[in-house]
Amino acid sequence: MRHTMKLLGLQARRIPALNIASRGRHSGTLISAHRNNPLLLRIATALDQKTPVVQVLDQWREQGNQVEPSDLRCIIKKLQDSHRFSHALQISEWMSSHPVYTLFPEDIASRVQLIETVLGLKEAEKFLESIPESMKDYTVYTTLLTLYTRSEDTLHKAEPVFEKMRELGFLLKPSPYNLILSLYSPLRNKEKVNELLIEMEENNVEPDDLTANHALLVYAAVSDIKAMEKFLRSNPGVKLEWGTCIDMAKAYLKSGSTEKALAMLHRTELLVDSSSRKPAYEALMRAYGDVGEREDVYRIWELHKSAGSSNEGYQAVISSLLTIGDMEGAEVIYREWELGGLPFDARIPNTLISGYNVKGMERRPIK
Would the CA dihedral through 334, 337, 338, 342 be positive or negative? Predict the structure, then answer.
């Protein structure tokens, strides 16, 4: 443990202390000062005065006060929650540089996250290289996998980490599988998805909602209706996202199953909440237009308007009506848009012009 502390202390000194103007600065709110936590109160005051937080900790100890590790972890968490990542990193470094504190893998994982946020992925990797394998548990590897699965560009790094977790017996929860699935899903890699689902079954790891949505998005993207329906039968209780249902409806329509496509679109409507109304309704209008359901397009359009007008909504409904062949309806909606007072958006008249071209009609005067 002393060797570990020495490594962490060296790493802390290697990374320079950061001020509020550093890369980690965010416009988060100050942490709330609690009367029953004088150290937290003092740190909150120091942040307001732009005083280095480590100076506050040093003064606190010099005055004979104890700095409990639980307090430090709490403060780090509160600073992270208020987007004070550079300050949280400073406290994490301070904690590592004092041998009196026993660090746990959770502290290492938190430090990795903070370094990546403030200094970048390469610095986080360098820090992790200095940590003994004995300190790298499930939490640390999951944190690293999370960082690598944020972009397809780091897939080549994510896969070895996932394999290492497999070797160490850490693949006993859905989380690591979901992280690697989040990379394979946009790539439409059905083979990899199937391999992971089989492995989860062999390891008695139940797919959760996130697993289900990743898998179904891939099956829908490659129009594998059998795999899609088999998964749904095997996992009847999963909660689907509205976007997943839209893609599944498109897969049904592409395969010629119009009734199943409509049933999935109706299921989609039940999943729309207040935070997703506009994008969901826009996707639904386009999907109903593809199916040829004129009344449903108008019905969803009324729901969209009740959520507030937007150029994206007008473009979606006009495009959907043109897909169905309702040119007159599209023109009525277009005139409504002209008089609605929304900012001009060239996509909307261009959408109508494209409709005229497809129908071989003479272009009418438009804005």
Answer: negative
